[in-house]
Amino acid sequence: IMCASAKYNTRGPALIPRMKTKHRIYYITLFSIVLLGLIATGMFQFWPHSIESSSDWTVEKRSVHDVPVVKLPAPIPERGDLSCRMHTCFDVYRCGFNPKNKIKVYIYSLKKYVDEYGTSVSNTISREYNELLTAISDSEFYTDDVNRACLFVPSIDVLNQNALRIKETAQALAQLPRWDRGTNHLLFNMLPGGPPDYNTALDVPRDRALLAGGGFSTWTYRQGYDVSIPVYSPLSGEVDLPERGPGPRRYFILSSQMALHPEYRSELEALQAENEESVLILDKCTNLSDGVPAVGKRCHKNQVFDYPQVLQESTFCVVLRGARLGQAVLSDVLQAGCVPVIIADSYILPFSEVLDWKRASVVIPEEKMPEMYSILQSVPQRQVEEMQRQARWFWEAYFRSMKAIALATLQIINDRIYPYAAISYEEWNDPPAVKWSSVSNPLFLPLIPPQSQGFTAIVLTYDRVESLFRVITEVSKVPSLSKLLVVWNNQNKNPPEDALWPKIRVPLKVVRTAENKLSNRFFPYDEIETEAVLAIDDDIIMLTSDELQFGYEVWREFPDRLVGYPGRLHLWDHEMNKWKYESEWTNEVSMVLTGAAFYHKYFNYLYTYKMPGDIKNWVDAHMNCEDIAMNFLVANVTGKSVIKVTPRKKFKCPECTAIDGLSLDQTHMVERSECINKFASVFGTMPLKVVEHRADPVLYKDDFPEKLKSFPNIGSL
């Protein structure tokens, strides 16, 4: 027994370590498997899928073969709800908060839809829709996470209604997993309607879905909900038309559309008969050789023209309605840099929600078609050249490809969802070469300009040095002054030496002009870095620091207005049957003189480069009325009145003589009335608004301790 025990005991300790090692290996192996599984799961969960998804989409979207089959029928959606608006039919809460202010767009995966007999509803996706979906999937709007999506785009091609089975397409839409009556779904359609009535919107019942349509009329377009898009021209990708500079061209008016209504063609031919040298009316060619594609040719009698190249030979190109309102020829005309003359009553122009078509086209009512030649002749040549440039740029930015059309559509919808981050009018409409990047249009300022930025004072002077120095000294006391700019308008005399100028706490810059022009005060100088500008004459020495600071504070609340001190009024003279300038004290005001006024620097740009007609040259020639011209300009752009601040009415310089001051000339007042009538004629309207109020500090008249008032020294009459 002892021997046996000893034998057992000596083997026991050797068995125990072997069992522990086996268990350790087992548990290590099990732990490693679990750990690798967690790592793999995490990588799959958090690894960006956009590239893979994009690649899969590229394979899927070309064909409906070898994809999941969905059998119809399904419920048919309601017809488009014409009452839909963004606040009633669009769920903005799906968009959520996005730090980049970008909506997220999800594209449904491709499926094959068959009817109850097993017949495929659609076998192919058009090349154009393929390009459109590719553009979206490659854009910053795209997401492959359906739960993050704000907008849903079906992979069902409804661009061309002619290729659709209306009922079955509606049933296919209703099968989409997130359809929910079409809420937050976007459909693209360029060729709506069909014979005989050719409806101007897609006939497929779509309920609440947004429609990006190429041919809306005012009857079918849901303002602020749908998006009017161009009808894409396939020639855009096939024919390279080099940009042609603006200016006169061989023909004044050209029409290139085929299959026009007989009444329209007869009117065009009558116009050509009256103006044979300057009007060219083209039609379909009937004498082409075999093998010559008719789409690239147009004919007049026996003469053959290359299309769309011939469009570059005309100043104006007619775009008439056909069976459908939207016409692909509009894209061809814009590409050629020809100014489109759009004759299609009730047509909603492409992207008209953001594009200013008055800058690139002429719209003529159909009943005015016989007067087209005289209407176009009345357009000034300078304006025609600007429209030619704008037309070409519209095509390059928004028409040239399905990608451009898709991204512009999404940006418009994005601007509705995030209006505080929306693209400005200038960004939509100004070609890159003319964008003034440092300027913000005050019509679209989202917030009150920061007080810390301050304002730039611009003093226009000729040779009143003593008075100028007093103005500089007084203005420099204003707390919010950021910079002082002196515009030296005397070419025959040098400005004082640097040592003679007043020593002030802010930068002082002297700009010497090439010519003595009043318009020099409104030039957009690079030195103007603030949004606010104070224009002040070199003899306005009576305004106190409190008055100027208060005026700046008022302007900050109304940055799109002229905010100033000397108030004036325009009146209608019934005896003379014309406008009259009035400087007497009255209960009304319609202008503030820019001898002492705050305004946004954007208006310097408009005055210098966009002033209508010959107003700027007229002002410089007469050495008068630049302030009235600025009042007209601002009122015309904003549709708003000026704001007079503080009660002061007397602004005459006590030391100035008649020789020194323009405004003391005997003919001055007469010319001021002439200015108002001249400007009203050029603008074609009277934009000035008459008001009966002014802005004063809240406590300035109250019996209250002066030290508790924000602006105690507000001055007197």
From TrEMBL:
Ranges where the Glycosyl transferase domain occurs: 455-700
EC number: 2.4.1.224
Subcellular location: Endoplasmic reticulum membrane; Golgi apparatus, cis-Golgi network membrane
Transmembrane segment boundaries: 25-47
Coiled coil: none
Family: Belongs to the glycosyltransferase 47 family.
UniProt subunit comment: Part of the heparan sulfate polymerase, a dimeric complex composed of EXT1 and EXT2. Could also form homooligomeric complexes. Interacts with NDST1. Interacts with GALNT5.
Protein name: Exostosin-2
